[in-house]
Design goal:
With 82 residues, the chain is an all-alpha fold. The chain has one domain (3-76). It has helices at residues 3-25, 32-52, 57-76. Helix 1 runs antiparallel to helix 2 (32-52) and helix 2 runs antiparallel to helix 3 (57-76).
């Protein structure tokens, strides 16, 4: 196996473990804070996996733009006032 394949598998496993850990520690469901943590963990894992793939940059650039938009939305979420 190439080192890139090993790194892809390792990042995928770490991302899944992080998502499972976040999901397990949620006590009040998908509130704004939990959604931020879960979403950012997922976006960072996908970005790390895409970085290690052999896809050309003209194919991955739009995906990184979309991931950036999702991350920006998640960071911009505010707690609702009651």
């Amino acid at each position: 196996m190439k080192t890139t394949s090993i790194a892809l598998i390792a990042i995928s496993v770490l991302t899944l473990l992080a998502l499972l850990g976040v999901f397990r520690n949620m006590k009040s469901g998908f509130g704004p804070f939990n959604l931020k943590v879960y979403g950012i963990t997922l976006v960072m894992g996908i970005a790390a996996i895409l970085t290690l793939t052999d896809l050309p940059s003209d194919k991955t650039a739009p995906v990184f733009g979309l991931l950036g938009a999702i991350a920006g939305y998640l960071f911009g979420l505010k707690k609702e006032k009651s």
